[in-house]
Amino acid sequence: MSRHLSVRLGARLVGTLAQDRHGSLSFTYDPVWMAENDATPLSLSMPFGGNPFGDRAVKSFFGGYLPDSSRVRREIAKFFKISPNSTYQMLGAIGRDCAGALSLWSEDSSVVPDERSLPAFAPLDEEGLAEAFAELRHRPLLAGPRRLRLSLAGAQSKTAVYVTDHGEIALPQDDYPSSHIVKPELDGYFASIASIEYFCLELARRVGLRVPAAQYGTAGGTPYLLVERFDRLRRDDGRIERVHQEDFCQALGISSDRKYEREGGPGLVQCFEVAEKLRRPARERLRLLDLALFNFLIGNGDAHGKNFSILYSPSGPELAPVYDVVSTLVYEEDERQGLDPRMAMRVGKQYDARRVGPGDWQVLADRATLSWPGIRKRLGDMRTAIGTIAPRLEEELAAGAVVTPVLHRAVELILRRGESVRSRHGLDHAR
User: Fold this and answer.
1) Which segments of the chain belong to CATH 3.30.200?
2) pLDDT by residue (tens digit) across 94-103?
3) For residue range 234-265, what is the model confidence (pLDDT) as tens digits?
4) Where in the chain is the domain with CATH 1.10.1070?
């Protein structure tokens, strides 16, 4: 005997996820779906021609929708009385609101996603939001009956919410799609991370990268970051439409537990190969290069394969906007954090950003079919832009009470990184 979950994109059935009596998983595309004119595979790693797919491919793709943190998995499993190590059981419990348009449903479910005429949500005032943050400490993602059955990858404390047309934050109910992700600072381990991520997102926007709308706020004294989901579209009537997406680990068939390059995860060369398969390869490769340069310049040491994604927009697959972009320099500086200072993806042969030089970029250029002079020009332009914009942005945020001593130190380190890169790469002579 085997067990099955229906896999949907929006309201459309696209296939079946099965687990056999030995615990092995398989996925089979629905033939009706494959016959549709607008049908597309769920992943670059699972093309229609490979149907059906076995345990390894299925766990690499579907497992990518589950939280990375083992602690979060254990807490969710405890709540639902399931095994934290069972991809099938975890998806069955919290897979109704995954990243993108994908959702998983038991075959006996009477609910069909996205057919509700009106949004279903419970508004939260500041006190209610603070209570929700407190509940997150022992109920990750706020997963549970009638509230959310959602799956969000990553290790940071967060949950998905619905923001009304009037800007009111609410908890979606009865599996209604969320529109935003909220990330509160709960454990105090990475002090001021909400303000630092907000700063980095706004800095990315001002140097020309595509960035989702974000807000910084506090509730009950707890700082939080509210980010609009790039994998959602808001219709004119206020309803939320899901948009399919997958991260680069999923696209390459690499398990989430190997998201770092030194552990077998994607490197920049593989990322550029993925970009080559998107709708407008030349444009997407330049966007990917700019994102890689930005991460390098601000010291985002955690830019791993799950922090790059493909968005399957109505016009075709493209690189998703910037997300989870945080300068880790200030935390690397604090020895108490015990943070690994190596970059998630190497440049050339270097994982240590402080030792990256022109020769390393040349190695990347050769392997990824890029131009080192072109890289150098974009690196110099972006370094100059960051050096000009970052101090002004900090002043603006200080006026809005966003700046903290930790954020101020983070900005100092970003500017210092820029000066180091300028000197090491001879960017004064790059024109």
Assistant:
1) 121-234
2) 888 788 899 8
3) 888 777 888 999 999 999 999 998 999 999 99
4) 245-429
Length of the chain: 431
At residue 393, φ and ψ (nearest 5 deg) are -65, -40
- Do 426 and 358 touch, CB atoms closer than 8 A? yes
Q: CB-based contacts of 372: which residues, under 8 Å, 6+ apart?
A: 358, 361, 362, 365
DSSP assigned state of 314 = T
Residue 128: half-sphere exposure toward Cβ, Cα within 13 Å: 9
Provide the CATH topology of domain 121-234: Phosphorylase Kinase; domain 1 (3.30.200)
Q: Which class does domain 245-429 fall in?
A: mainly alpha
- What's the whole-model pTM score? 0.92
DSSP state of 177: P
Tokens standing for 162?
A: 């619905």
pLDDT at 391 over 90: yes
Helix H or strand E segment including 63 = none
- Catalytic annotation present for 381: no
Place of tokens 């890029």: 370
Long-range contacts of the stretch 107-114 (C-beta < 8 A, 24+)? 107/4, 107/5, 107/6, 109/6, 111/174, 111/175, 112/11, 113/8, 113/10, 113/11, 113/175, 113/177, 114/10, 114/11, 114/177, 114/241, 114/242
**Are 322 and 209 in contact, with CB atoms under 8 Å apart?**
yes
- C-beta atoms surrounding 226 within 10 Å: 21
Give φ, ψ of 92 to 5 degrees.
-65, -30
How far apart CA 177 and CA 232 sit, in angstroms, is: 8
Selected catalytic residue, list 30, 97, 231, 302 = 302
Q: What are phi and psi of 396, to 5 degrees?
A: -60, -45
Q: Which residues contact 118 (CB under 8 A, 6 or more apart)?
A: 239
In 148-177, which positions are buried (b, 16+ CB within 10 angstroms) versus exposed (e)? bbbbbbbebbbbbbbbeeeeebbbbeebbb
Each residue of 267-295: pLDDT tens digit?
A: 999 999 999 999 999 999 999 999 999 99
What's the rounded Cα separation, in Å, for the pair 59 and 91? 11
Do 422 and 414 contact (CB within 8 A), yes or no?
no
Determine if the peptide bond prior to 145 is cis (ω within 30°). no
Cβ–Cβ < 8 Å for 310, 274 = yes
Distances (CA, A) of 172 to 147, 190, 322: 6, 28, 25
